[in-house]
Amino acid sequence: RYTFPASDAAAVVFDLENGGCWDKATETHLAKEGDRTVTGWRHSTGWAKDQRVYFAAEFSKPFEKFETIGDNYARASFRTTDGEQVSLKVALSPVSVEGARENLAAELPGWDFEETAKAADKAWNDELSKVKIETADETARRIFYTALYHTMIAPSLFCDVNGDYYGSDHAIHRNADFTNYTTFSLWDTYRAAMPLMTVLHPEKMADIVQTMLTISDEQGRLPVWHLWGNETDCMVGNPGIVAVADAIVKGIGGFDREKAF
Fold first, then answer.
1. Residue 230: which H helix or E strand, with range?
2. Could you report the per-residue pLDDT of 3-15, keeping only the tens digit for each?
3. Sign of the C-alpha dihedral, residues 168, 172, 178, 182?
4. Which end of the chain is more exposed for a tag (fewer CB within 10 A), N or C?
5. What are phi and psi of 251, to 5 degrees?
6. Domains in the chain, start-ordered, CATH in brackets?
7. pLDDT in tens, 26-50
8. The whole model's pTM is what?
9. What element of type H or E holds 141?
């Protein structure tokens, strides 16, 4: 939600060139659809050698003008009154612009900013409330729940609402019968964070293990440090084995145990 002064040149700029760390854009595209929607994609190389992100962005107000500078930059301009607020919703897809559009329609159809923020707070509180601690030390409480929040950032969803995902074999897989994940920082997480997930989020573990087995089918081995459909081979060892074995000995179901073995 952007709050503008009175202006004939209020604008939101899209930048597809600059990325974090050593990530470098290799192919980008920006286009307008109607007078409120911007779509496009950004392919890049970096930690993930072939990262592909597609997006659909919709404004709450029609833009007066839409300009592109090459393929990397775009400017959506507005005429605004003093204190006027313009909202923007963005959805991502690892598969296509169409997938991003469908994700946006399914996951955020409305425009109530306060209700959306309230729903996000509730979703996080529901997850964080899986662990309750008793302490009079407010600092300790903040440290604990901040750390617990950090354990829930990854693995992250890597599929569209219809189940489509971008595979480790660099192919699009349609209507998968499991929820596909990515951001498997396994060298960092196999000792404690992944075992904690089996305790706090057992309902997610079947899909997480199935994702790892599917990655093995697609690239010939379990993930080491997997990111956006790419094996980064960051760090050493084969920690995927530990995560899958841990789920098996704890009785997690929902996947082919013999295949996993």
1. strand 230-231
2. 999 999 999 999 9
3. positive
4. C
5. 80, 20
6. 2-111 (2.70.98.10), 154-260 (1.20.1050.60)
7. 999 999 999 999 999 999 999 999 9
8. 0.93
9. helix 138-151
